[in-house]
């Protein structure tokens, strides 16, 4: 079973930065996309950023220009650099590894990011 372990969350003031990491272990499929989602209390889980095995990235408008996703395929690790953080970025952030075929999502346990105003 693929396991994902997130690290790097915490409390930061508005305008600050954090870097999240997520390491995958186990039988990691060669063809995959890695991504970060977030979920604030009472809200749905939304995509924050994703990166394919070929390093193609996607961001929603809410984080574009502030967040950067990257990956180290040799280490099966994905990173999320978050700059210019806002209070509305406060949420639990989840790492996911998406197996291409058959399609399947593996999830990490989630990590709290809190941005104070």
Describe the protein in words:
The structure is a single chain. With 117 residues, the protein is mainly β. The chain is built from no helices and eleven strands. The strands form two sheets. Strands 2, 4, 5, 6, 9, 10 and 11 form a seven-stranded mixed β-sheet that branches. It has a four-stranded antiparallel β-sheet with strand order 1-3-8-7, with no helix packed on it. It is globular. It starts with a strand and ends with a strand. The model has no long low-confidence stretch (mean pLDDT 96).
Q: Which residues sit in consecutive blocks of at least 5 with pLDDT less than 50?
A: none
How much helical structure, as a percent, in the residues?
under 10%
Radius of gyration: 14 Å
What order do the helices and strands follow?
A: EEEEEEEEEEE
Query: Any idea what the shape is?
Result: globular
Tally of helical runs: 0
Strand content: over 45%
What structural category do the secondary elements indicate? Answer: mainly beta
Number of strands: 11
| Biggest β-sheet strands, sense, barrel | 7 strands, mixed
Question: Distance between termini?
Answer: 40 Å
Q: Mean pLDDT across all residues, rounded?
A: 96
